[in-house]
Each structure stands twice: as C-alpha cells, then as structure tokens.
C-alpha cells in the first residue's frame, strides 16, 4: 500500500459520514479487529496512527452518546425488557433444576430400578411410596437421614422458621448434588429427595409471598422475607411484591387521613405529603438493602415512585388545589406546592429526583391560580377606578410602603403618594409577587411578569378612559369599553393619572418584581444564585421598558387631548389658522406686538402644569419635564404638519406678508424662549420651530418681497417674548401703564415698549 493510499484512508476517516455509516464496518459479523488495525496502520506513520486513534476514540464517544440517547428515548421499553430478562433468568434456573431431575430419573431407569412404578406414579406418589418402603425396613444410613430431612422440612415450614428452612433446603441441594456425583443414594431415593426439595421450595415461596403481602409485615421482617424469596430464585417477583406492599400500606392510610384533615387544606397537604414521600423513601431503602443498585430493580423502583407521585398529585389537586386555583387562592396553592417540594427534595439523597415530576404535574394548576389571581386584580382595579377621586394620598394604615428595609436613594426614601385605586393596585401586585416568589423552581417568573404587565396595561387603559377624551379614543382601548370610569375633570386630577402610572412603572412594580430574583441565602450558594440573578436581569430590564411604553401611551393621550383642546373650538374650527397671520397686513396701523392668543394659552397651561408637577412628581422631575416637552411638541408639530395652514400661507388668495411673517416669527421665538427657560426644549422641537420660520420666510420671498429687509433683529424678538412672559406670569413692572395683568390676551402698549416698537419699524 502506497503513501498516497494511506493519506486517502486518512481523508476517508475525516469524511462527513453519519454515525450509522461509520459504524457499519464494526457491525459485520465477520469483523476482525486485528485485520482492521493492520489494514489501517500497515503503511501509516506516527502522525497518521495518532490520527486514527483519535478518530476511534471520538467514534467510541459518539457511539456511547448514541446508546445513551437510545436508552432515554426508549426508557419504558428498556425497563420492560430488563424485567423480562430477569423473569427469563428465573425460568432458566427452574428449567435447569427440572432437567437435572429428569436426568437423574433417566439414570435411575438405566439402573433397572422399578421402571414400571417410576413411570406410572407421579412425583408425590414416588415420594410417598419410597418413604413407605423405607419405613418397612432395609434402611441404610443415608436413607435414614433422608427421612429425617424430609420430616424436618415439614416442621420448619409449619412453624414458619424461614431461615432454618432455607438452610435445610441448601443442605438438601448440596446432598443431592453430591449424590449425583458419588451415587451415594439409589436413583429412587435421589429422585425422591429432589422432588421433595422442589415441592418444599415452592411451598416456602408461597409462604414468603403471603408474608410480604401482609400489612403487618414491616421493617426488618419485610426485608428478610424479600431477601429469602430472592434467594429462592424469584428475585423479580420479590421486588414487585416489596413495592406492592408499600403501596398497600400507603393506600390503607389514606381514608383516615382525608377524614381527619378534610377541613384544612394545608394540614391535609402536610400529612399526605409526609406519608407519601416517607413511604417512597422507605421503599427505596428496602430495595437498596436487598438488591443494591442493580439497574433492572432501580428502574422498577423509579417507575413505581413516579407512579405513586402522580397518584399523590392527583389526590392533592382534587382535594385542595383545584378549588383554590379556580377561586384565585394563589397563596394557598403556593404554600401547598412549596410543602410538597420540600418533602420531595429529601428523596434526592436516596437517588430519587421526583421534583421534575411534581413540576410537570403542578405547573398547570399553579398557572390556573396565577391567571385567576390576575383576573381578580383586574376586576377589583376596575371597580376602584369607578369610585376614585384622583387625589394623591399616602397608602392607608396597614398598606404597603415602597421600602421599609432598603435604601434606594433619597427620592424613594418616603412613601409614595398615589390615588386610592393605584394604592390598592400596588398592594395587590406586591401580594401576588410575594406568593409567586417561593415557587421559583416552577420557573413562573416569566409568566408572572407577563401577567403583571397585562393587568398593568388594563389599568393604564382605565386611566386613559378617565381622561375627558373622545369616544373614538375610548373605543380603541382594548378590554375597557364596558367599564365605568370616573372622569378626571381638572388638570391636577389628570396629572394624578400620570403620577399613578409613572410611579408604578418606574419604581413600585420593578421593586416588587425583585422578589422573583433568586437571592443567595448562604455563602456557599452565592456564586451560583448570583449568576442566576444576573441572567434574569436583562429580562426584567426589558419588562420595565414595556411598562414604560404603556405609560407613554397614557402620556401621549394626555398631550393629544390638551393639544386638541387648544387648537380646536367646540364647533370644530381652529384657533391656530393662517388668517391670524395673513390678516395683519390689511391693517393700516402697525399692530402692537405680542404672541398670538393660542400660544399665550399654551404657555399659561404649561406654567400651571409645571407648578402642579413640582409638588406631584417629587424625585421624578424628568418625567414632568418630558411631559411638558411632549405637550409643546404636539402643538407645534400640528402647526408644522397642517397642510391647510401652509396652503393658505403659500398659495392662498391672500399670501403671507411682512407683518404676518413678523408675528409668526415672534410666536415661534416665544415658544423657544419659554420652553428653554422651563428646561423642556428638545432638539426636535428646536429644529421644527426653525423649519417653520424658514418655510414662512420662503413663502414671503416667493411673493417678491425681501423678508430680511422687514424683519427686525433677533434681539427684538427675544425682548418682546421676554416681556410677554413677564406680563403673563404677573412679574412685569411698567410704571403707570394701565393693564389687566390677569388677561392672557393683554397687549403690550406702545408707550411701555416704545423702544422695542421703534426697533421693529426700522
């Protein structure tokens, strides 16, 4: 074989063959390992031989993994086959004994020992006849001993002296074996002995099986009986009887258990769980003591334990969990399951891990309880919203503070102020998450958080309906159309809606959700549990973002409602229209410059809201700032996107003139100034205002007028806007000028701002 061929063989080893194809060569009935190695290694160098060894090791690992998967995939069949093999072994032993007896019988016939009587009589008559013959006389020493042995068998069985009977059987079998070799017994006597041994063995097996099945047989006595039956050659039957004995003891204790604990679900759970899992533990101990860790019997024990656990779960669900889960009694369900998991965990020291079985059986019932509890929270919240006065108060006596044991910053040091419905909603969610927390092993944190998200969305929908919004908006709110909601009439009440939602989403609900994170109770568990905690933090951060997006819906609805109230009249006309600006150039006299009434009203509304928010959003000033920013953007964006407004400005019969441009410019600079001073000027708003000004300038330039020749300097707009802000807030001081300081539409007199007006007319 050439070097090229060797390299080809190496390439063949690295081919992308399936495991089945790679194992075909080894499955051949004529496979010769020496020839295989010789064919592969004959011309290989050291590197190629190492490569072949590595390949064979990998193939061995893959084959072992394939076998493991096959065993797990066919576990039930594997257990059944193991038991059948054990049964077959017992039958083979019985057949061997039977053949030995027949061989001795044939040997006796060949020695001319009463052929006719041996053929005609049954095994029992052989024994009886031979014993009667022996009694008549001509007894040898060995035959005399045989009579004594057979009588001793009967006495030991009658007196249930199992150990001595087992010793007598062993002694008789040794004597029969020795007689077959040395011919110390006559053939008839040997057949009699072997037949008697077989009959007594069967009687003893029946006696042991009956003893194992008795409820009074326990502890050491039970183990001894099982071990004796196993030693008689019926090990599979003995193991099955052992497990069935424990099952019968468990079954007999259930009626009294139900009657004594029927009134208390927790007491019934404790008693039932303790009995079931202690019985399984005892069965495991008995099986291990008698059979060790033989796979066939270990598998049967596991199958039996799973079956008993399933029956236990069925009883618990029927008598305790089903009713509690249906009524939303999550705490009762959680306590009962926690008790069961505690008892079940004690079996792990004995090699029985039944927790996955319980998790599989209990997860549907706990999910039902979770959903029922969340539905109850949703219904109670809807009822409370119907009567809420939307005044922020501290939690009632006995209510839950935000944090009593941990410092989460100065902003969270005090108890939160919420409306009555929000306080109750928060309390119910905290109780719910506390109940779910102990069931961490059921991995319910994901579904629990999603459920909280769902009921929070429902609560936010109710808050949105509390806004005096249009019917179209109400109909679009999922799941809230048929619920009665008390309307928040004033701006303070409407801001309270936002305070409820923002505090719940930003602080209270995320804090409550921390109860679902695994905390390390002991130093030796800290690294593992800490890693689990860190792995769940991204999920909770994403969950918090979802909560905030729900609050954003409420905030956007709030801003949209107030923007529409500003822009539109009750008749559907607009306060903010092109006529405000195009009509200015029709006046003979130059107007007294002041921001347009709608923008004055916008400023006053924002000022009022900022004042209310200062007291309402303590520690959450950013939320108030974003709210004012969004409201301002909503109004200005409407102006920027209103096609009718711009069509009249750019293409209408009366286009925008220099004075109209100056007024529009002043309005936009006014918005820029008060939003900047209020610290809610966003980059987006600033850019939109600049685009509006630029578009208005282009419209004037398109009419043939140079806009820059008529517009005053930027300082002029800033000064007029600043004076307007002072006048609207009551902080202006213009000496003896008469004015109505409370009127948001008051103008600046020519005398008061003569220098500014003259600047504007130059």
TrEMBL record:
Q: Which InterPro entries match?
A: Cullin_repeat-like_dom_sf, Exo84, Exo84_C, Exo84_C_1, Exo84_C_2
Q: Disordered: where is this region?
A: 520-544
**Of which family is this protein a member?**
Belongs to the EXO84 family.
Query: Is this entry keyworded Coiled coil?
Result: yes
Give the Basic and acidic residues compositional bias ranges.
522-542
Biological process (GO) annotations held by this record are: exocytosis; Golgi to plasma membrane transport; intracellular protein localization
Which residue windows are coiled coil?
Answer: 155-182
Question: Is Transferase given among the entry's keywords?
Answer: no
Q: Which GO terms describe its cellular component?
A: exocyst
Could you list this entry's UniProt keywords, alphabetically sorted: Coiled coil, Exocytosis, Transport
Q: What name goes with this protein?
A: EXOCYST COMPLEX COMPONENT 8
What region holds the Exocyst component Exo84 C-terminal domain?
A: 145-354
């Amino acid at each position: 074989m050439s070097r090229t061929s060797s390299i080809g063989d190496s390439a063949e080893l690295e081919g992308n063959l399936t495991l089945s194809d790679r194992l075909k060569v080894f499955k051949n009935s004529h496979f010769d390992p020496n020839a295989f190695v010789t064919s592969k290694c004959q011309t290989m160098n050291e590197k190629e031989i190492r490569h072949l060894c590595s390949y064979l090791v990998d193939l061995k690992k893959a084959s072992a993994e394939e076998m493991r998967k096959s065993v797990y995939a066919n576990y039930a069949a594997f257990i059944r086959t193991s038991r059948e093999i054990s049964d077959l072994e017992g039958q083979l032993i019985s057949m061997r004994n039977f053949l030995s007896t027949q061989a001795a019988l044939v040997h006796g016939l060949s020695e001319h020992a009463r052929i006719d009587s041996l053929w005609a009589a049954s095994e029992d008559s052989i024994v009886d006849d031979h014993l009667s013959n022996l009694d008549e006389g001509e007894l040898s020493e060995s035959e005399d001993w045989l009579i004594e042995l057979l009588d001793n068998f009967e006495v030991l069985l009658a007196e249930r002296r199992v150990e001595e009977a087992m010793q007598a059987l062993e002694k008789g079998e040794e004597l029969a074996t020795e007689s077959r070799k040395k011919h110390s017994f006559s053939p008839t006597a040997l057949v009699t002995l072997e037949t008697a041994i077989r009959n007594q063995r069967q009687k003893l097996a029946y006696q042991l099986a009956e003893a194992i099945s008795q409820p009074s047989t326990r502890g050491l006595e039970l183990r001894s009986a099982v071990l004796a039956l196993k030693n008689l050659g019926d090990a599979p039957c003995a193991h099955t009887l052992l497990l069935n004995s424990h099952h019968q003891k468990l079954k007999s204790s259930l009626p009294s258990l139900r009657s004594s604990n029927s009134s208390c679900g927790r007491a019934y759970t404790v008693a039932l769980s303790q009995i079931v899992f202690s019985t399984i533990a005892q069965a495991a101990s008995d099986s291990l003591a008698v059979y060790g860790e033989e796979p066939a019997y270990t598998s049967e024990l596991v199958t039996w334990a799973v079956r008993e656990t399933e029956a236990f779960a069925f009883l618990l669900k029927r008598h305790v969990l089903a009713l509690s889960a249906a009524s939303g009694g999550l705490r009762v369900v959680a306590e009962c399951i926690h008790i069961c998991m505690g008892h079940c965990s004690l079996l792990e020291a004995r090699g029985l891990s039944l927790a996955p079985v319980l998790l599989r059986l209990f997860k549907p019932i706990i999910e039902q309880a979770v959903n029922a509890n969340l539905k109850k929270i949703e219904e109670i919240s809807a009822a409370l919203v119907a009567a809420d006065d939307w005044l922020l108060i501290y939690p009632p006596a006995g209510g839950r503070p935000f944090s009593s044991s941990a410092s989460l910053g100065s902003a969270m040091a005090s108890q939160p102020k919420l409306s009555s419905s929000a306080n109750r909603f928060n309390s119910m969610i905290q109780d719910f998450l506390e109940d779910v927390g102990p069931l961490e092993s059921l991995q319910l944190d994901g579904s629990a958080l999603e459920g909280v998200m769902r009921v929070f969305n429902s609560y936010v929908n109710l808050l949105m309906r509390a806004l005096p919004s249009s019917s179209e908006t109400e109909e679009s709110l999922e799941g809230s159309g048929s619920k009665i909601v008390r309307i928040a009439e004033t701006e303070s009440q409407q801001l309270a809606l936002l305070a409820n939602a923002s505090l719940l989403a930003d602080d209270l609900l995320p804090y409550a959700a921390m109860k679902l994170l695994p905390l390390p109770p002991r130093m030796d568990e800290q690294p593992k549990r800490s890693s689990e905690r860190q792995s769940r933090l991204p999920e909770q951060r994403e969950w918090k973002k979802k909560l905030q997006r729900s609050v954003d819906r409420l905030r956007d609805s709030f801003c949209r409602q107030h923007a529409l109230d500003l822009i539109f009249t009750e008749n559907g006309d607009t306060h903010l229209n092109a006529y405000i600006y195009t009509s200015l150039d029709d006046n003979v006299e130059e107007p007294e410059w002041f921001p347009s009434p709608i923008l004055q009203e916008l400023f006053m509304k924002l000022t009022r809201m900022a004042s209310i928010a200062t007291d309402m959003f303590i520690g959450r000033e950013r939320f108030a700032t974003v709210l004012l920013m969004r409201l301002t953007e909503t109004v200005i964006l409407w102006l920027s996107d209103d096609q009718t407004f711009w069509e009249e400005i750019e293409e209408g019969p009366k286009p925008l003139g220099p004075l109209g441009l100056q007024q529009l410019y002043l309005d936009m600079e006014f918005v820029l100034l008060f939003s900047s001073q209020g610290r809610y000027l966003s980059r987006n708003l600033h850019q939109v205002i600049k685009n509006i000004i630029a578009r208005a300038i282009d419209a004037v330039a398109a009419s043939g007028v140079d806009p820059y020749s008529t517009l005053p300097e930027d300082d002029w707009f800033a000064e007029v806007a600043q004076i307007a802000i002072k006048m609207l807030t009551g902080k202006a001081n213009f000496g003896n000028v008469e004015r109505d300081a409370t009127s948001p539409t008051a103008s600046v007199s020519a005398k008061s701002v003569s220098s500014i007006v003259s600047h504007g007319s130059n």
